[in-house]
Amino acid sequence: MNIAVIVPPIEDFYHTPHRHASLGAEVVCTIIRQHGHESILLDFPCMGSEATDIPGELGYLREVILPGEYGPTAFFTRRRRYGPSYEECAARIAALKPDLAALSCFAFAYSDSCLKLLRALRRLLPECPVIVGGAGPSSMPDTFIGDNLADAVLRGEAEVSLPPLLDAFLKAGSRKLLQSICREIPNGVTAPLGKPPGPPGLTASAGEIQTACAASAVTKRFQQFSASISRGCPMHCRFCSISFSHGRDFRLPPLESAATRILERTAAEGVPGLPISINIEDDNLLADFGYCSALLERLTQQLGAISVTAENGMDYRLLDHERIDRLTALGMRKFNLSAGIVPSQASLQQRRSQDLALLEDLCRHLHAQGTETVVYAIAGFPGDSRRQSISALQFLRSIPAYSGLSLFYPVPGLPGCAAAADHPSVLSAGSSLYPWGESLSTREMAALFRLSRFINLEKHKHLSHRDKRLLDLIRRDKVLHTYIKGRDEPFEVPDYAADSELVREFFSS
Ligand code: SF4
What we know:
By secondary structure, this protein is of the alpha/beta class. The protein contains 16 helices and 20 strands. It has helices at 23-34, 86-95, 111-124, 135-139, 158-172, 175-182, 242-246, 255-269, 289-303, 321-329, 344-349, 356-368, 386-398, 442-459, 465-477, 500-508; strands at 2-7, 10-12, 38-43, 49-52, 69-70, 79-82, 100-104, 130-133, 152-154, 189-190, 212-218, 223-228, 276-280, 307-309, 314-315, 334-340, 372-379, 402-407, 481-484, 491-492.
């Protein structure tokens, strides 16, 4: 059986190619092959991009977008579709004549792109059985099923939900039969015909977990492989949707099987002579520090000196000086620390403990070693306030680390996020600055976004003469400025594009 595994295009204001490794789709391909079938991966977001209009649902963003804006304090100006047109994607899938098409939608915010591809695919291949899975469908399966959409939705982890579906499909052989059989399958497979979604899919046991690893970037200096090893997280932050796909238990595959998978992949795809960098995409691998360091040790034994990053962030509460030094010795060259919610009181409400003294101490330790550090924090979550978000930014300004401020994006099913289910999924992207829960307005979030970039401008070691002038101007006037194409002088960001009162409060307190 030929199965096309498809990552649909995504539409957003930005895309970070070195973070895009489609590790969920990689796991699906591995499981399909282990069951004796052929899998072909079509990773569309890697296949070019094209400018698109800002959709009507995001019309409110026009007030904060400054046409022609660019530079270190700028907000986004243009939206793109990363991947070919939906019609072209559908044509490429159809050309493969698949027996089954499996779409992987890795974030709820990109559900709309997945649905557009589903519709285009149905026009070309009305009889082809189609299944969807991933974090997006796991949180809202009903959105993806129906007569002209997917025939089944896989919730939770593919190691558990995919094999029974493949068996069912082999028995069924047709789209209609697959639909009726899927309704009887447990393990998170949901079928159409109005049947309500069942409980979240079962999660894989430690021995069942497939370590995912894929080449994700290549430069003149190194080749990066991204890997995902553990599943779940032992912490239960209220604002985090990880349990929708991975349950509530933290699990690790046997260390040797994880190391073998990564080594096989680097051996098969590594460019001879180019140093290797491993980017760990796990949600919280530090939850077992012994495992994490033993795995990196095992990789360095085989690969020699490697560099290591964790672009998805690391829980700083699980670090101390000794652990930082150990990770540095094992090749970690940059520390991306996840702080969650910075103001302590709000953090507690979100069931996320906080120790800002520790965080600051770790940043100072890393700074003394000359190691680049980014601290990620969230603003705009339900219950956030203008005062809290300003104090979070002031904390980020005060520590020797770059600011990685993210604007909260809700997923249906999270506490306090019921509204997300009734809104277009595109509003749930971090770049959409939608005022969820009315905690912060779009103008306030735009000001926070630009101020976070200003903080990073302040921390850059090597500024051009022009950027130094921009920085001095903002500091002197306590007013945000930016560059606009066609203007020689920095342009004062108007109040409608970033709440100027919030900016004043940030600089004055
Ligand atoms: S520590 Fe991170 S991954 Fe774990 S629940 Fe909290 S936000 Fe989610």
